[in-house]
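Input for the complex:
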Amino acid sequence: MEFIEFKNIFKVYKNGVSALADVNLTIARGEFVFIIGQSGSGKSTLTKLLYREEKPTKGTVNVGGINVGKLKNGNVYKLRRKIGVVFQDFKLLPKLNVYENIAYPLESYGMKSSEIRVKVLKALERVGLKDKIRSYPNQLSGGEQQRVCIARAIVNEPKLIICDEPTGDLDPKMSKEIMKVIENINKELGSTIIMATHDKEIVNRMKKRVICLHNGVVVSDKKKGSYTQNENV
Amino acid sequence: MRMFRIIGKSIKDAFKSVFRNFSLSMASISCTAVTLILVAIALLITYNVRSITQDIEDVLTIVVFVDTKATAGDVENLKNDINFLSNVDGKKTIYNTQEEIVDSLKKDESMKEILEILNDAPIQSTFVISVKDVKKLTDTAKEIEKMDFVNYVKYGENLVNKIVSMFDVVKNACIVAVVALILVTAFLISNTIKITIFSRRQEINIMRLVGTSNIVIKMPFLIEGFVLGVIGSLVPVLLTIYGYTFLFDFVGGKLFTDLIVLVKPNEIIYLTSLVIVIVGGIVGMFGSTRAVRKYLKV
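Predicted:
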């Protein structure tokens, strides 16, 4: 069984909007995958199914042998602890500083503070933000905030990192830096990375697997794809 | 250990939240304090009414006037029959012979003269009977009245019934008020927590997304409710302790008449305070549980 499997996935929202239709995909351990497509093509829905923010209407989603759709509400947190999520809007806690934001998930798992310190410092080193450890989110630039978000996602060294438009709010220079950080994590930690993005330049430059969605349907899946190949959708 | 760390963090977060949302917390604490003051007053009234009723019940007796023709054996049988009644507290039944009554009356100079004129004629032997349940006093008296060698029975029928039923009404009204006020407190705290949850919904969403378990998300809110309830009970506790003691000293421990004796402060203020703190804490927790369950669907 592959690390991630989408089998005959259909997703229809309560308002009747069909977001995904018969999606079948497999993703191997350690792979770096871009999911591209226009707004409303189903990219975010597809990634949300992985960390059970949404449930499929039909079909099964397996992550590391767990049938995510069948997971009980009370057990969802166990899945999320194994997954790191990087958001377009960073989702940092404004009243906590950089260290506290990254340490937050580990604290809520009940981990020892000495253990937390080691992990947080390691994550900060990976994203190159050690000098901003006591800063608050509103004192950081967009790129720095995104790096904090990445550090929080990788602090527990998850096997799967989901990035939902991580460079959507950043300028090209910052986007490039962020992508370098994510690529390094993929190489160093061996984590599987699934990234939903609009950023043509990044997709074209990195030459990774590219899955293209259009109206909720997978229209192309290329091993070393690019955005230009899918420009018509 | 892990659980202790989580609980420790929840307590820390709860206190942080109380101070971070200071104005909201103050509003909730003030409302809780006001309702708990009323709860404390109602509790103190209930205790006092119960005590006063008890005092009155203790002095209420049925006096059975025994026929002068009754022999010692008849009196003994009558005593057994009376004590056999379920509502009669047999251990407290006292028999006074005509001679004993006359002797005791003669100790009073004014009565002495009257008794000499009457030549002891109207004095009869009596049984003084205490009952277990004052509400059944009339029924018990009527049962005794039907017994052999009983001339008649005396008890303060109308007055007794009126006093007992009046105090019953006061006691029940207080209990209803206490329950209603406790519900109001729970509602107020529940609303505060609801607003707190609403203002922190983004934060809660982030907690969920980073894999925080439901119990870890909920626990600080439950502790916050408890803390708000306990802080809200502090002013009512101080008022109970100092206010009741002051009132007791001010009226000299009696209300209007010597018959209505208030319960001594030491006997009730600490118990009432403890009840208020416990009610505040539990009701706070209950209120936040309600809010958390409804508004924190995780």
